[in-house]
Write a structure and sequence with these properties.
The protein is an alpha/beta fold. Helix content is 35%, strand content 22%. It has helices spanning 2-13, 17-26, 37-48, 71-87, 106-112, 155-165, 216-229, 239-251, 271-281, 317-329; strands at 33-35, 54-59, 66-69, 93-104, 118-126, 169-174, 180-189, 208-212, 232-236, 258-262, 287-291, 309-312. The longest helix has 17 residues, at 71-87.
Amino acid sequence: DEFLSEAEQASLRAKSLTQQLLTFAKGGSPLKKPLNIRSLVMETATFALRGSSTRCDFDLPEHLWAAQGDEGQISQVIHNLVLNAHQAMPDGGDLTIRSTNIELSVEAITRLALATPGPYLKIEFIDQGVGIPTAILPKIFDPYFSTKPHGSGLGLSTAYSVVKNHHGTIIVSSDQGEGATFTLYLPAQIQHATRLDDPATLARGAGKILVMDDEPSIRALVHQMLGFLGYEVHCVSDGQEAIRLYEEAMNANQPFSAVILDLTVPGRMGGKETLSRMKKLNPHVRAIVASGYSNEMNLSQYSAYGFLGAVSKPFHFSELSQLLSQITQGTESPLSLRSTA
């Protein structure tokens, strides 16, 4: 469905200054899983440069290993590096993104200030921009440092912070007037990642799902996604409304199969308190926590709050479908779906 595809891509790639501020200020344990970097780089870069004068050339072999990372966070890193290259070429130009599998030795990780030898993905972003003066190079990853008139100074510092939190690193080399190369190293798994959005990975379902999120665009998107998968979907904007609807469904003997609760709803009841009150109505409520970022809890610690699963925003169709299928069908422990930091 073309609408679903475009809506999902917009949700997956849209990045806000607020999210970057929270990412940099709070960090947070990544929700790690094997990532198809080839697909993620191509989709993120294409979206970021849509309608611009920058051309992107990809050199991404199909045999690339799977990166071990948080999809939303790594997508943000790619997005920020691509936009940085684009802004360095105001009159247009070529951005080359290439990646290779690499085994780093003890000597290599010492030189790169990495913690563990072994398999990594090396991803290079090579622009034809104005270059970076030697005096500025040591400062480019500092928070709020920017050479752009209207820059926030958060793009590169956010990218660096996220990559370090993934036990990787970013190296930059540049000669003024001859462009710049940003080289990203990410820990990898020696395996090939399947396409994350392959229709074969979509798990169809049935039953009633209650979705609580304060963003109308998110509610509309999730309603479309879950409806497409076969669920009956009910969306509300805050915890009070979610509890009311949940109790009404129980009293009518038409309970919800699962609930998806936004962790943080500014000024209103968020996911943790909502679930706590739902558990008083039904101790066996099946709940998933959703968040872009929050300083209230680490998504990787969701089970401590009674959630059976966690999903990071922006949502990915196949990830959400698989998680809901496991939880609603109860064929195996939903906790087995947790990614470890």
